[in-house]
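To: structure subgroup
Subject: Chain for Friday's discussion

All,

I'm putting the inputs and outputs inline so they're searchable in the archive.
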Amino acid sequence: MARSAEDRASNRGGLSTLMCGIAGIYSAAGRPIDLRLLETMTQVLAHRGPDGEGYVLMALEGSEKPIQTRGKLTHSMAPGSHRYSIGFGHRRLAILDPTPLGHQPMATENGQVWITYNGEIYNYRELRNELKQRGHQFRSATDTEVILQAYLEWGDECLSHLNGMFAFALWDRREDRLFCARDRFGIKPFYYRFDGERFLFASEMKSLLQDASYRPAPDEQAVYDYLVYAWQDHTDGTFFSAIKQLKPGHSLIVRDGTLTVRPWWDLNPSQWRQEPDRIVPAFRERFEEAVRLNLRSDVPIGSCLSGGLDSSSIVCTVQKLLSSNPTGIDQASVGERIRTFSSCFEDSTCDERPYIHRVLERTGAEGHEVFPDGQQLFDELPRILWHQEEPFAGMSIMAQWAVMRLAADSGVKVLLDGQGADELLAGYPGYLGSYGADLLRQWRWRTFLGEWRAYRRHHPVVDPTIVANLLRGLLPASAIRPLRSWVKGDRFWLDQGFSQRYSWTPGAVTRFPTCLENHLYGSLRSLGLPALLHYEDRNAMAFSVEARVPFLDHTLVEWLGGVSPEFKIRQGVTKFVLREAMVGTLPEEVRLRTDKMGFVTPQDQWLRVTLRPEIEALLESDSMRARPYWRARVLREWYRRYCDGNVAIGQTVWRWINLEMWLRRFCD
């Protein structure tokens, strides 16, 4: 008997949609939507799904039968399409099910619920089997249909059953209700603008900028937070006024002209319940399962490899799974050995090739290396900014851009990466200060001194963020405000009026009982990881590559919430449980590394020497002189001092330049 597409896909293990762009318009007042705007909003996302587009138009109260079309919307609309007040658009790359059954936007069989969806549901096989047992029938091999059937079964609560990364909009014709949701960590983006009458949404802000009625203008609070703190993606705001993002782990409902946003997931305090002698093997089992799930694909999969602990752990674990249990993973997507992609430099201060090569020797992986050129990347900055859509905090994002391009040129469509490990396992130096504050507050002086001495053996120079976070955990807020200028640098270059209008002091996170847990939670939910996921999504999607992050498997994240801080920091070293779990899997030189780099660049060399003529021209330009954010003369003077080696303000200089370039690209 012939097998269905669904059965064939289940055996092969792939997903039908790899990468997507979604867009939509909802006129809450029931007025007809602008079809050309919907089409333009969708087509500008072609890089997210280069193989096709689809649309659906719907009317309020079911007064008209939905119209679905493939290809250009305005070329196929019949007279009368002006009666529709809801429209979804979708850009798609079909992998397993290129038949009409896998086309998006997709509906339930009775046409009462429609969805446009971007993402991957890694447990789609298990969910599909569960839903079949509950009586649901499937027509396709898609994880999209799994979401639809899960919604029919559980309603809004379907979100808690999904393990993966996703952003979607769903129109329920039975209730005239728009239901939108974003995954727990914000791996996939969702932006929107609502003026009380029209609700526009999309995977990227550039879609919303296609609306001629909206004039792009910078959100000045976002500009201040970026210039002063290097923060972004820490609220539901964006750099564009009136454009918002749906926060990670949140859902959104529009009904009867009313918009409601609410959280559907969060990381909650829990007791440290794991038995100490079981923590390391239990972590290893969960991490390997997360990596295995992220290997589900029918297209080539590779991995980023910086030479650091996180990406190296992923690469070595993939090879371990290939060697020990090849039937338990989708080997067709990986082959006999995984391909890796690395950013390298001739400058020894930021070149990690010795560690990269040790991982390649251990695993037999097929290594690919790119050597980013500062001048070339700067020349590409307008294009990078067009994809990123917001200024970014450092030039390492440009090295990641080069890595994603290398992967695409090599035919790899999915890349694994180590994002999230630092925020879960206390990977940054500042976390040591928060942990030290906990030890002192608990009167564990001997343990504190032991940790401090162990840290100093590895690091003769103390990172200032360690001291700042130590004091922040011990002193009242009024006593630590002066520390900000020490850690972040002087702000005398800011325009005084601008600074007075937007200066603010963020409140401390107090959700958890310890300083370290609160610090990690803040990094995971607002000040850190969301921006990194933003950078990675845009860089990868620019080249039609999907980035997957095994460390952010929510079951692993939730389990780590019950692991005591002593398994995250011990003996002056971060990520203790990961290091122990990787014994025998990682090369010892990598497993025991105590320095941290990532996809770094020779930023100071580029800013002081390579790009000096371009930067000086920007600082002297009429537009930069006229900006209301800074004192232009002071910027020029301090850039000269920076080039002479008298001050270390490379990150700050970059933010000046990047903001100016962004303003020219989107707002001027």
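Points worth raising on Friday:
The two ends are 63 Å apart (CA to CA).
The CA atoms of residues 42 and 569 lie 46 Å apart.

D.
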